[in-house]
Amino acid sequence: MSNNQQMCGGEALVKALERAGVEVMFGLPGGAILPVYDPIIDSSIRHILVRHEQGAGHMAEGYAHATGRPGVVMVTSGPAATNVVTPLCDAFLDSVPMVCITGQVPYAAIGTDAFQECDTTGITMAVTKHNFLVTEAQDIPRTIRAAFHIATTGRPGPVLVDIPKDIVDPVNPRSAMTWYEATDADMDLPGYHPITQGDPELIRAAAEMIRTAQRPVLYVGGGILKSRAAEALLQLAEMVQIPVVTTLMARGAFPDNHELCLGMPGMHGNFTAVTAMQKSDLLVSLGARFDDRVTGRLDGFAPAAKIIHVDIDPAELGKVRRVDIGIQGDCRLVIEDLTAAMREIGGVEAQADRRAWRSTISGWQEKFPLVYEQSEPGERLKPQYVLEELRDNNPADTIVTSGVGQHQMYASQYWKFDHPYTWINSGGLGTMGFSIPAAIGAKVGKPDRRVWAVDGDGCFQMTAQELVTASVEDIPIKVALLNNSYLGMVRQWQEMFYDERFSEVYLSEQTPDYVKWSEAMGCVGIRVESPEEVAPAITKANEINDRPVVVEFRTDPRENVFPMVPAGKSNSELVVDPSQQGLEP
Amino acid sequence: MSNPDRFHTIVTTVENKPGVLARVSGLFARRGFNIESLAVAPTDDERFSRITFTVDVESAPLEQVVKQLNKLINVVEIQELPPEDCVSRELMLVTVAADAHHRRELMGLIDDWRAYVLAENTERIMLSFSARTARLDEFEECLRPFGIVELQRTGRVALPALD
């Protein structure tokens, strides 16, 4: 497409998306965005027609998590825009690159309470990294370029572009524009200059602090994945021989099967990961943000630890916990520089003697593994067992998505994540219903990979309709539905902290019939009720690749997630599994 | 404004575009930060505006708000000016009752404070007065006995002090 060609804003928008490298987008048309859906027919971009706009948003997130490329959403104005607010906020909290195009009423009608009008940029201001209201067709190419630039650089995040109908509608003269290939100079972002390279002096100081630390821990978060730093992290960890904890957002960023990997810390982290952080004298935080679910009660968190904090977002440095050394920069670049700096000061030989620390840690690992009790014959399944069987009957590069609640914690605890970008979940916002649309997005981005959505029955009922999308669009995901008939995590809190007074957490044991529902949506539905059926059902699901599969596992509602740091308590007050209570660390 | 040291001035240079003030002020609101005063106008370069905030640093730590402000794409530059490092001014327009009995006394006050008479009639005088915020407070107190009919202050603007 040559510059200076006359075209309509709608064509220019689709062309600009193609130029931004968009291969797929998730959306649903409607009045205000109608003119843009016409040129989509002739576009190279694959459009996935969703059943609810929230699904489009989570699909875009799943796609972005799995591929590293920005997820793209296109929906209409008003209720469609408000329906994407949840995924926008989800992407904002988990720093997921996403570009969302919303239709808007014609420019002249804005502010008149027109049909399907809402103040989309006003509503989404607090849940996007940035948003634009485009007022002239001529601005479309440069705005789209800026949107992708902002979404994918610095700390990634969602960017929304609101497009009034008149500037994309060929029957309106305001849609006439002259095409141009937008350049960086066209973006005009005088206030946006993300810094990626860490300060060399601070990196040298950090290397020295690491060298002398007796009980260091690498505390790694989702920033490792966003900056494609898993390989760099592996090199650093192996060179300095320091144990690694991977937060909920970073599962897989460091392989679980590595001897230095301690697994997940935090509220439902394992004893060793939580306690190693708690007793450490140096936490090296790489792309993590000291979330309350990791720190527990803040004034009791890792009291003896000095803090080195590396993050691309300077507002994170010292936001929650005072830092000793704060380094602003891209995790991969800083880790590479830090590895070089460690090598310069003598590598692993120059490090403090940490044999005692390592033996303490392996003692904890031996004494406090993750445990659960297998169900008695005739009882409902243990969810942990289902996760173990899923893990053991799928290749290590399987992509696992999850919703939010007990099943999410079991998945994070019992799956073994040995590869980056195999774990996709809603960490910051905790959005129930995330797993099915996220799995669809991941499968679209990585069609050759097996994708399992681990879901709960509460979550399933929030976004299950996207399985129709998956069936119709030929996106054969698999769903492991852990059905305990309860809002399980809320039930657990009511059992532990509200004297077993269960309030509004029981869903139903009979309704819906998940097998019939799945079949009605074009999926294969399988119900599993006893342990010996678990592995065969998973195998059967794995053999079906021409449509989505839902395997409903009837799990035990009495099962609780352990370990657990009760809300408001310090991580030193971690409650381990009942069978381990009373053991001396 | 009893303790002026509590009030710090944040001078932000922002892109002169629709909605930018809402982004900036919304950020303050979301962090529970009360804006004491606010002044906005384009700079000498019309692509940019300057927003000058006065905020109460005793109400919440300023550092995080400044860092969050910096993350706004439309914010180009931020200067945080503690009271001792800046020169600040505020403008007041005020209409004061001025009948024949008190007119002479009021005119004397206006002269002493170097305020300007903008308009007058037989009952009222409209003044403009520009000074540091604390001086505006004092002047306002001096005018009060005469009868303040209407009063409008702009909020302070500030520049870094010269060495």
Largest sheet of chain A: 6 strands, parallel
In quaternary terms, these chains amount to heterodimer
Report the β-strand fraction of chain B as a percent range. Answer: 35-45%
Helix-and-strand structural type of chain A: alpha/beta
Portion of residues in beta strands of chain A equals: 15-25%
**Unreliable residue runs of chain B:** none
First-last Cα distance of chain A: 68 Å
Number of strands of chain B: 9
Helix content of chain B: 25-40%
Biggest interface: A-B, 17 and 22 residues
The best one-word shape of chain B is: elongated
The strand order across the widest sheet of chain A is 3-2-4-5-7-6
Level of helix content of chain A? Answer: 25-40%
State the helix count of chain B. Answer: 4
* Total DSSP helices of chain A: 23
H-E order of chain B: EHEEHEEHEEHEE
Gyration radius from CA atoms of chain B, angstroms: 18 Å
Shape of chain A: globular
Low-confidence runs of chain A: none
Class of secondary structure makeup of chain B: alpha+beta
Question: What structural keywords apply?
Answer:
heterodimer, A: 585 residues, alpha/beta, six-stranded parallel sheet, 23 helices, 36% helix, B: alpha+beta, five-stranded antiparallel sheet, 4 helices, 9 strands, elongated
Topology, element by element:
The complex is a heterodimer of chains A (585) and B (163).
Chain A: E1 6-8, H1 9-19, E2 24-28, H2 34-40, E3 46-49, H3 53-67, E4 71-75, H4 79-83, H5 85-93, E5 98-104, H6 120-124, E6 130-133, H7 140-152, E7 158-164, E8 176-178, H8 184-187, H9 200-212, E9 216-220, H10 223-226, H11 230-240, E10 244-246, E11 261-263, H12 271-279, E12 282-286, H13 292-295, E13 306-311, E14 325-328, H14 331-344, H15 355-367, H16 383-392, E15 399-402, H17 406-414, E16 423-424, H18 435-445, E17 451-456, H19 457-463, H20 466-472, E18 478-483, H21 488-497, H22 514-520, E19 524-528, H23 531-543, E20 549-554
Parallel strand pairs in A: 2-3, 2-4, 4-5, 5-7, 6-7, 9-10, 9-12, 10-11, 12-13, 13-14, 15-16, 15-17, 17-18, 18-20, 19-20
Antiparallel strand pairs in A: 1-8
Chain B: E1 7-15, H1 20-30, E2 35-42, E3 48-56, H2 62-71, E4 75-81, E5 86-97, H3 100-113, E6 116-120, E7 124-131, H4 133-143, E8 148-153, E9 157-160
Antiparallel strand pairs in B: 1-3, 1-4, 2-3, 5-7, 5-8, 5-9, 6-7
